From TrEMBL:
One of its GO terms (cellular component) is actin cytoskeleton. PANTHER family: COFILIN-RELATED (PTHR11913). GO terms for molecular function: actin binding. Actin-depolymerizing protein. Severs actin filaments (F-actin) and binds to actin monomers. This is ADF-H domain-containing protein. Keywords: Actin-binding. InterPro entries: ADF-H (IPR002108), ADF-H/Gelsolin-like_dom_sf (IPR029006), ADF/Cofilin (IPR017904). It comes from Ensete ventricosum.
């Protein structure tokens, strides 16, 4: 019962997590103008808000995104994935990635998990969601498989 009370309390405090306006503006630029290949977001625990940490330029790759995610800290990311269908049509899908590595702090994992849905609602146009605790769970092959 104590654990449930703690989790419930944590979710309530995190549900008030603010989203910095830059997050929404940069996401719109990624979606509409294709100014970025990816965006990495970080929760600033001191300010209690989600903020942009890194912008991936259009020529950057999925490997660049993966290399931008720390091995011991949680992050959110969006990735604009271009692919060609079996019918030879050029397509694009926007992925939301919830990165929560095993080595990250329990408090951080709880904060990111409880804030994820609210944050995703601020980013209108997410088409696919991935949750990963280790790089193998978000390999490019998994992304390709989820896109089609």
């Amino acid at each position: 019962t104590i654990i449930c009370v703690l989790c419930f309390g944590k979710a309530n405090s995190a549900s008030g997590m603010a989203v910095n306006d830059e997050c929404k503006l940069k996401f719109l630029e990624l979606k509409a103008k294709r100014n970025f290949r990816f965006i990495v977001f970080k929760i600033d625990e001191r300010l209690q808000q989600v903020a942009v940490e890194k912008l991936g330029q259009p020529e950057q790759s999925y490997d660049d995104l993966a290399a931008s995610l720390p091995s011991n800290e949680c992050r959110y990311a969006v990735y604009d994935f271009d692919f060609v269908t079996d019918e030879n049509c050029q397509r694009s899908k926007i992925f939301f990635i919830a990165w929560s590595p095993d080595a990250s702090r329990v408090r951080s994992k709880m904060l990111y998990a409880s804030s994820k849905d609210r944050f995703k609602r601020e980013l209108d146009g997410i088409q696919v969601e991935l949750q990963a605790t280790d790089p193998s769970e978000m390999s490019i092959d998994i992304v390709k498989g989820r896109a089609i």
